[in-house]
Amino acid sequence: MPDKESCSRTAAADEPLEKLVRAGLFMDLLILVPETIAVILSGSATLLADVIKVANEMLASVFALMVIRRVTRGGKFSYDYGMGKFESLTRIITGGVMFVSLCILFAFTTFRLLNPEPFDTDAAIIGIPLMILASVADSYHWRTYYRRAQRDPSPIIEAQWRLRRAKTFSDLLILFTLIVSVIFASNHLVEYLDPIVSFIIIGFLLLAGYREISSSLPDLFDKTLEEDLQILILRELAGSFDRYHDFHGVRSRRSGRRIYIEIFLGFDPEQRAGDVQDFAASLKQSLESQIPGSVVSIVLSRG
Q: Which CATH entry fits the domain spanning 227-300: 3.40.50.720, 3.40.640.10, 3.40.50.1820, 3.30.70.1350?
């Protein structure tokens, strides 16, 4: 009989995706407002870096919510390829915004490193409890999204669990920085700790922005299937070479979580239509069972 913990994990994993994203977005907003106040009061480069990082991640979550609402609330058959393209495009926009934010943050942090200021306890008074709350919330969402991605993978869920993982480590790093700054507040070297940790968070932003753009561009431009999938298709066709007359090529495109594959085959004019349909259906079923998320179409073609 399953225990309460495993039941709660299953319930969280089965929670509607839109509700999960909205909950994460609301939690980010609750943290962003007081953290922004802490930045204004203390001028902390570390907290400013986190504010910019959280704002960018909220933008990514807003885009994800737009895609989810569009898909789940009707009209998803009007843009079979378009919604996947929109999903990839929003990730590229998010990555671009991250790079712009990174440039602004880099300039500010460099200035603070060259002109260090004494540590302000206002940052710790507001920041420490905030980072404890944020690390717990982000860790929960990270695990929840990861379990959902294992069961029902998609680019949105993949991006969300990676985002929450990065946020968890960033929260813990900032929490550690604030605690160390309070303990060693009298040491002048603490003045350099704030901008140094800010540079580490800049690294998180740089990596996240690069991943968003690099992982979305190939799908947006209909990159061909990976070589191992192409070999799988050719192997399947080679095993049934006597059931069709000509092979005119394969065309594929990605749209979000789906891989659309079109196989162009020629058949003997004397071949019975029923035999052609049976072969097309069996080939489609075989390939779709071997390539997760694929939609295979067999297209009758002449040379």
A: 3.30.70.1350
